[in-house]
Amino acid sequence: MISNHLNSYLILAVFLLIAGIYGLIQHRSFIGMLVSTELILNGAGVNFMAFNRFLAPDPAVGQVITLFIMGIAAAEAAIVVSFILAVFRKYRSIDPDEVKELHG
Amino acid sequence: MTFYQIVAEGLFFAFIILVILGSLITIRAKILMQTVLGLAVALLGVAGIYFYLGSMFLTLMQILIYVGAICIVLVFGIMVGYTPTEVAEKAIKDWRNKFLAISSAVTAFLLILACVLKTDWIPAVADDRNFSAAHLGEEFLYTYCLAFELISVILLIAIIGSIILARGGAGGMVTDHRAGKEVAAVQEEKGEVST
Lengths: 104, 195
Hints:
The structure holds 2 protein chains of 2 kinds.
Chain A: H1 6-26, H2 30-54, H3 60-91
Helix pairs in contact in A: 1-2, 2-3
Chain B: H1 3-28, H2 32-52, H3 56-80, H4 85-93, H5 95-118, H6 133-141, H7 145-167, H8 180-194
């Protein structure tokens, strides 16, 4: 029963994390980087839920933290999309390499 | 192993494959809309994983918040900031970026995998653990009241901040240093519409 082992969930969470890191570095647009960040946050959520299911004495703790992560992710997505809107108005591009006024 | 257990294991593998395929689409797709669709597939798979971890409530919340709300916000972002295909393909051809991405991802994977496999996890002893949504709500309102209040304040600040940012700052519209003419034209149009 592979669905009853902690390690299978942890390895899935690690996969989500590294997919997010890979996409964050490799994508050439702000939206792509934002999407990769969502993957990383989901990896954290899976991790919390797995520890909650197998190790925690009180199973409400991990669910509370996962709900908190979901709220943070929703707020973050709204803020970043409005950032992208402002940057697109100013620079006419969503390529991160174009936005380098503070580069020095 | 009974028939239902075999079906459950098969569904578990289906959800894992959904997560892996979705995240591969997310990080490999050249068109931004396909990226968001891959994200939606991966998030649906994660919702199924939450179901196997014992929380029906979080499964529904995952589908409602992530697949329903955040993906729509991302599609709005794509509609506003359009990326031409040449820029998107430039990302794939940039070997330095790709090398950095692959090396950091592989290093992180190996390090965390070593940690996961080497640790002896101590399982929870209690058998009568309560996974119900009623217990979760009680804990939310009494023990973890701070998290509950904090998330509402954060969401309020995010809504107000994103409205102000999308309007173009507290003072009105932003100035453009490159395509000043276009923005001026857009401003004139907006002024006519609003007045």
